[in-house]
Amino acid sequence: MPLGNVSERRHGAPDLGVSVVILALDKRANIASGLGKSAHHDDAPASNEVGRLWLPLVKRVKQPYLGCWALPGAGLRSDISLEDAAFTALESTTAMHPHYLEQLYTFGGPARSQGGLPMVSIVYWALVGQAEAETLHEANNVQWFATDALPEMAFDHEAIVDYALWRLRNKIEYSSIASRLVGNEFTLAQLRHVYEAVLGKALDPANFRRRMLTSDSLQQTGKYQAEGRHRPAALYRYSADTPIEEIYEGSLAALTSHKVLAANTARQHR
Amino acid sequence: MPLGNVSERRHGAPDLGVSVVILALDKRANIASGLGKSAHHDDAPASNEVGRLWLPLVKRVKQPYLGCWALPGAGLRSDISLEDAAFTALESTTAMHPHYLEQLYTFGGPARSQGGLPMVSIVYWALVGQAEAETLHEANNVQWFATDALPEMAFDHEAIVDYALWRLRNKIEYSSIASRLVGNEFTLAQLRHVYEAVLGKALDPANFRRRMLTSDSLQQTGKYQAEGRHRPAALYRYSADTPIEEIYEGSLAALTSHKVLAANTARQHR
DNA sequence: CCAAAAGTGTTGCAAATACACCCATGA
DNA sequence: TCATGGGTGTATTTGCAACACTTTTGG
């Protein structure tokens, strides 16, 4: 009985769009490339805590869920790839360029379009580095939110964000994806802060060091960085970019990441 | 310059459909519920080899790729969930009911629709048990193929199958998904044959036994099964269904599998 | 000197592997 | 009886977690 005006579309194809979960770290977790002291949104955590993950959301200006916050997205055209569509949606709403972009899941079905038109969303998730994240000028309708303090969100977008965070937490364990959240050169402490922010817990510095070094994915630059009244730390870089990923992504590796890699190489390898 | 008649659709939304990669084992790998001796397609492997994975394909009767084999699929309506659409596509083309169904990936973009209309495919992958697989009467336009001997396939469907196999190989390591490929009760040797077929290599029986038993996901039935001129093997069953999966699928677990579970409980818990 | 983080060493535990060995059965 | 797979025992290795310890710097 409700949804009367929608019933005529019940057997047609649903609308199709892409959305993006964009994730970045605050200053505390990644001091490598940063110089200033204040984090996003003037919400810098105390310096002895773990860093936090943030994401930009867009305020809806239409019904349904008017005034709620939603993931950046756009309709889907047929002349570009799905990944390019996600890349463009990200770029046009935030003017940022991701360091990593991967398909997350496709959501659809009548349950998620309460009162609205049927909608299928192909959702991607992206990582942006510290420097890139700072280029976003927060406006009235696009703002950063900490993932552990999300606002009232539209549709099922909160569940989608949760799923993206779950995927990131898993993927950081077996891939070199953390490389997309630190600068080109970094100390092991800085890299550890990234892991701590993603996993949401502190890690043993000694064991973390050994785990990273024995994985053979890092190489020393020969440079050192002094950061306080203590011994300077060696700077490292990732040796080959995305070595582990390709193994794990299997046959899908060939179908993805072209645009992101191009964008990153264009800006001098991240 | 080519594709002239398609160019007018270039900026519209692409068509949307679901496809399914349906996987099953041959007799050698799963003797639990079977009685006969011949495997699918009269291609029973020698009894000392590992079993193989098979999937049903549909022969195309239209251009493009006329005569090639393709994944079962259907268009997408907006009054049912994506999973229900995949379930229905599987059921209507093969008359089988899956024991497992999960979204695999969404494929799209202009590159994959050579000469045809732009097409986005939401692909699911499914597992069917031995008994269910035997209900499929092979016709002229739907047949079983071994995954290591695929025919000429339409579109990018061969890459999609490879990705589904990769996902299965990974998932069998950390979830109880193998339960969907064996019968209700099984010996550890039979369960091992499933793992061997999926992973494509032989496993140490002693270590496999210990790994399974210490995982606490199996329980003994008290029954035994004699299978040759040697000591009879104890029969086991999976204790709680899908215990590990839910942990690993995280927040997504709530959004999926309702229909498959219903279908399986309807037929007495698989 | 001393605080504080960088970096090293040591121990113990848990899981996976390799492989030797007994057990129970049907032919 | 003996061949065959079911089932157990055990040594070795590996990676990880815990934590004590040494080193190097700035103040």
Automatic annotation (TrEMBL), chains A, B:
Pfam families: WHD_NrtR (PF21906). Residues 181-237 form the NrtR DNA-binding winged helix domain. Signal peptide: none annotated. Transmembrane segments: none annotated. Coiled coil: none annotated. InterPro entries: NUDIX_hydrolase-like_dom_sf, WH-like_DNA-bd_sf, WH_DNA-bd_sf, WHD_NrtR. This is ADP-ribose pyrophosphatase. The lineage of its organism: Bacteria, Bacillati, Actinomycetota, Actinomycetes, Bifidobacteriales.
